[in-house]
Amino acid sequence: MTVKKIEWRSLFISCYKPQYPPPSKAKKVCASQTSFQRISLSDLSSTTLSEDLSISLAGSNLHVFTLAELKLITQNFAASNFLGEGGFGPVHKGFIDDKLRPGLKAQPVAVKNLDLDGTQGHKEWLTEVIFLGQMRHQHLVKLIGYCCEEEHRVLVYEYMPRGSLENQLFRRYSACLPWSTRMKIALGAAQGLAFLHEAEKPVIYRDVKAANILLDSDYSPKLADFGLAKDGPEGDDTHVSTRVMGTEGYAAPEYLMTGHLATMSDVYSFGVVLLELLTGRRSVDKSRPHREQNLVEWARPMLSDPRKLGRIIDPRLEGQYSENGARKAAALAYLCLSQRPKNRPTIRTVVKTLEPLKDFDDIPSGPFVYTIPAENDALHKDNLKESSKVQKESKKDSHKKENGQRAPHHHHEQQLHDGRHGHIRHQLNSPKSPKSPKYNHTDHTALRQNCRNGTDTPVHRMHVGRAA
Question: Which residues, 6+ apart, have CB-to-CB distance to 244 below 8 Å?
């Protein structure tokens, strides 16, 4: 993307060495502000272009970091702190201690550095600073600060320990997200969108997808990556016209065809995410059979048929989901994915529909799973060896009896025959008996504790039916 250099120099005085001091008039205007009012990207095309960004965002509590501070926070962007990379650039984990600067508490952070050779650029960086620097909500990721030093463009966010919904839902060896957690994530994401759509100056997020929904330690979702966000239509306008951008499989069809962007475009994209939560499938998966590669095209016809709904529900749930909740969520996704924007519900209606779903209690009880620690395997093998040994001795005794010889007496084990099944069982003498092998009560207590709690060692799982 091409940007006139004079525009960014005039906007970011702190990023460049000024040719002359800024006019005092601009300072007086900013200093006289008594209340904070959100500015938009369109506002930056007029007189605000001559102001420093940090002054324009006065009242937003953003910190302006130096590159040296960010290198200290991330250990010079060490590979061991690398979290991932998106269209904007690489992301590293860092830690801010309470000595870095006054008023900034100690906390882990995620530091996103603009890749100068990537698909996004200075405008997307500026868009994130403008929107997240001014908008605060429990379901929007918190922007702590930024860095604008020479060619470097960096963003510093709160750290989200569970990563993205994409990783949690599609990562090959990740644990299956429970039904209630999926509905909690869907509701939180919808509430974040409702905050944007219902703002005094509406915002269209434009990039709703599983990769941009981050999860904190208790799986509470937050929308992140506002580089493609746009100010919504004002007055009697129904949409804003813009070049088509976004991710394959998520963008609304009317937006792809016309470039007309509206809040209903976000509703469609949210419907795709909701469908991913229901099915456990990606919006586009080229590894699947041809007719199943596009999730919406494959699954939407079955969303409105309760008899077919079970075919598309994520099989990893193993039936552990609310059937009533699944029907309501499927019906909602069906409406969100309508080809006609007017038939889609508003995001507020989406929130009201999802609110009760996370608390539905008609989830069937799961299968009983008995876990055998690895150390039990060794014990089991020893028992099998001992049993085999005793059986051989028994055959020898029987042979001796037939020849009139007396069988030796066994002190430790006595053979008991089950007449019904013909199996040989072994009964140990009391551990208190002086003739019995040494009995270690502590070892057996620890073994029972391991069986109850499970260990981190490899285990065998046996499904022995559903719990009562």
Answer: 251, 255, 256, 259
Closest by alpha carbon to 332, among 243, 428, 267?
267
Cβ atoms of 183 and 325 within 8 Å: the answer is yes
* Cβ(278)–Cβ(357) below 8 Å: no
Q: What is the pLDDT of residue 88?
A: 83
- My answer on whether 89 and 193 are in the same domain is no
Q: Which is catalytic among the residues 52, 117, 207, 314?
A: 207
Q: Read out DSSP for 72-120? A: HHTTTT-GGGEEEE-SS-EEEEEEE-TTSSTT---EEEEEEE--TTSS-
Whole-Å CA distances, 232 to 203, 205, 387, 462: 5, 9, 77, 55
Do 194 and 108 reside in the same domain of the chain?
no
Same domain for 374 and 353, yes or no, is: no
Residue 355 in domain? yes
d(CA 295, CA 308): 15
Is residue 405 included in any domain, yes or no? no
Are residues 267 and 322 both part of a single domain? yes
Distances (CA, A) of 271 to 190, 223, 238: 10, 15, 21
Last residue of a domain, one of 115, 141, 158: 158
Nearest partner of 89 among 22, 147, 38, judged by Cα: 147
Active site residue 207: yes
Which CATH number characterizes residue 133's domain?
3.30.200.20
Is 289 found in the same domain as 191?
A: yes
Query: Mean pLDDT of successive 10-residue segments in the chain (468 residues)?
Result: 41 44 38 48 44 56 90 93 87 90 88 80 86 92 91 93 95 87 98 95 94 96 93 81 87 94 96 98 95 96 92 94 94 97 97 91 61 53 63 61 52 45 44 46 48 44 41
Neighbours of 175 (CB within 10 A): 8
Domain that holds residue 9: 5-29+39-158
Of 137, 158, 179, the domain-final residue: 158
Among 341, 376, 366, 384, residue whose Cα is nearest residue 466: 366
Smallest CA-to-CA distance from 330 within 370, 357, 367, 366 is with 357
Report d(CA 34, CA 25) in Å as an integer.
17
CA distances to 40, 250, 340 from 246, rounded to whole Å, are 21, 8, 19
Q: Is there a contact between 182 and 328 (Cβ–Cβ < 8 Å)?
A: no
Verify that 247 and 292 share a domain, yes or no.
yes
Q: Say if residues 358 and 187 touch (Cβ distance below 8 Å).
A: yes
In a domain, 126, yes or no: yes
How many structural domains are present in the chain? 3
List pLDDT tens digits, range 298-312: 999 999 998 999 999
